[in-house]
Amino acid sequence: MADYTEIKGNRIQYLDSDPTLTSANEGQVWYNTATGTLKGLVQLQAWSSGAPLSSPRHDAGGAGIQTAGLMFGGRNPGPLSATEEYNGSGWSTGGNINLARQQIFSFGSQTAAVGASGYRDSGGPGFRQETEEYDGTSWTEVNNCPIASFAGAGFGVLTAGVACGGRVPSPTNSTAEYDGTTWTAANNMTASLQQLAGVGTQTAGATFGGHNGTAIVDTVQEYDGTSWSDVTNLPAARSLAGTSGIQTAAIIFGGNSPSVVNTTLDYDGTTVSSNPATMATARNSLSYPSGAPASTNTAAFAAGGYTTASTGVTEEYNSSINVITAGAWSAGGNLPGAKRDGGVGSVGTQDAGLAFGGEPLTGDTFEYNGTSWSPGGSMNTAGRSGGSFGPQTAAGTAGRNASVGSTPSTNYEEYNGTSWSEQNDLPTGKRDLAGAGTQTAAVVMGGATTVLVGTAEDWNGTSWTAGGSLSTDRRNNSGGGTQTAAITSGGVLSYGGPYPPGSNATEEYNGTSWTTGGNLNTGRGISGSSGTQTAFMQSGGDTTFIPSVVVTSAEHYDGTVWVTAPSMGTARAGFKGTGGTQTAGYVAGGYAPDTAATEEFTGETSAATASTLTTS
Amino acid sequence: MALFIYGTATNTGKGFFTAEDRRAFFLRGYPANVWVIGNNEKGALWLAEKNGVEKTKSEAQTLVTAEVDAAKAAWDANNVEGETAEQKVQRLGPKPTDITLP
């Protein structure tokens, strides 16, 4: 008689190794005979750290999603007007709201957000009715909200939003709908609540918990575009929570219950259940709310809040079969000797780099293979601070000088992977300039002659011609991209001391003229750089020059805005040249103090990863 | 074996702790850059990799308490003439409360 196995086969697959995993494998379980482990590809939920807000705060307005989030207003301890935008990697500065205030009704997206009403404890009546709209750049005041309350919930989009609850000063059950122009009174909530969290759309919204003026409550209410109904209850009363998702698939996190909590709840439109993920930092008074129409219960962010003080902590929630490995710097092989202000840091690529010249004065060249440096051919003229570009086997460096303050050179040399050769000189001697492009089409920009300059020169493989001038004269600026799509950012804004703080200005080149780009969050010069005009990275650098304050921080540019990126392990400046990419860059050498260290940057990756299933 | 490791480490933002870390060991942050970490191999390795400084529970509690006490003192000292207690809470948020590490 056939047994069960002969009829049905094994209950799970026995495999010699894990299969190649894609989303199609989700839910599958197998036994890995090589490792003796039961494995599966299942959704796992967890909170991980994100880049902190530049301006710590709580009770802020919030909108958007994990990869395009928005925080505005709030308090720390007084009312704030600052806006910050999140791209899933870092925060960048947005336009300030016109009226600094806290506990604002908020909804919408990063580029079409609404902030209404709220509270301001100075400069006029506390309870506000002003409504402001954000277009991704600036806030514009529009028609007042009819509910002069604060600490209520908002949800929906700019053209179809809802504001509900809050305190006036007692809790209210008022509801108002916004159509992008006009506010209209709507039916009241089933209970008067403040400090509640809201999520969803104007025709399918939900609120969670809150405070009725006497106690924290566990109420879950839903709105269908016309009326409110009580649906269910949270496992425990909770107020001041954050939320993300839609009416039928939301998460609720943090808040007071009754003391500050770090737990997460799931809501499916009918019932509330416990989610295994917990925030690392328990806090309340997250943005009001974190919910936005495009937000999900699988990817959320929690920014700011209150612990014993306002915090800038950001955490990201993900429910995924993928393991996300955050971008990070790691140590590479050391240069043979400490080197600064040479063509070091980012000429070539992370696994085919090039370092040459620099101080102490040298013409030595070293090639990097991603692990270690080995000697290459020496420069014909030793020097430092040229404008450099190109890959390891076809690099160029134009201009230079012998030491700080010495006469700049017109020299231009090219490297072929073995040796350097003299080419036609620059029309004017320069030092401390930036470069971009290749041996057949390059541009070098900024620098110093006997004065600070913003001039640029184009190279066509044979000769140099005058290019468009920068709007801002500068030296020791960073460069990247190609001759017809170049970028330069940061730099030193004077020829000699006293020095103003490092420049935060960015300019973009189309082969003819320069236009202004977004501003770095931290002005700096003599930084590492890599990438293109639309995917650029600037790393480390000096922010004050004399005395030097070198930094570890790095920033990413997407062609429009700069956001914070993972920091290097060692603070330093003194890099020249450009190469690599935004997700695979490197820096080598630098000062202060002079160093031989190399660091490599690897951008964020995401891959489906099997979990080992255990009985514990 | 103790359930937790206590230590201080500066949160450097993205990548400071990952989703994998959160699944591998208990992790909870407190004021004064104090972290309470699940006492297993991965938890201990995480603190070392983040250049953290291990503390005893008592030392960690002292750091947290000092931060909370400072926040309380700042809250007490922040007054506006004629302001009611409720108005003060409205303006500053609730007074910080004691935190006891697990």
Description:
The complex is a heterodimer of chains A (616) and B (102). Chain A is mainly beta and 616 residues long. Chain A has 3 domains: 4-39, no CATH class; 46-320, Neuraminidase; 328-602, Neuraminidase (6 Propeller), CATH 2.120.10.80. In chain A, 1% of the residues lie in helices and 40% in strands. Chain A has 1 helix and 54 strands. In chain A, strands 1-2-3-54 form a 4-stranded mixed β-sheet, with no helix packed on it. In chain A, a hairpin with a 2-residue loop joins strand 5 (61-65) and strand 6 (68-72). The longest helix of chain A is centred in the N-terminal third of the chain and has 5 residues, at 4-8. Chain A is globular. The mean pLDDT of chain A is 90. By secondary structure, chain B is α+β, with helices and mostly antiparallel strands. In chain B, strands 2-3-1-4 form a 4-stranded antiparallel β-sheet, with helices on both faces. Chain B starts with a strand and ends in a 10-residue tail after the last helix. Chain B has one domain. In chain B, a hairpin with a 3-residue loop joins strand 2 (27-30) and strand 3. Chain B has helices spanning 19-24, 41-49, 57-77, 85-92, and strands at residues 4-8, 27-30, 34-38, 53-55. Classes of the chains: A mainly beta (616), B alpha+beta (102). The A-B interface holds A 44, 46-52, 58-59, 75, 77-78, 89-90, 119, 121, 126, 259, 262, 277-278, 280-282, 285, 306-309, 313-314, 318, 323-328, 564-567, 604 and B 11-23, 27-31, 67-68, 71, 78, 87, 90-93, 96-97, 99.
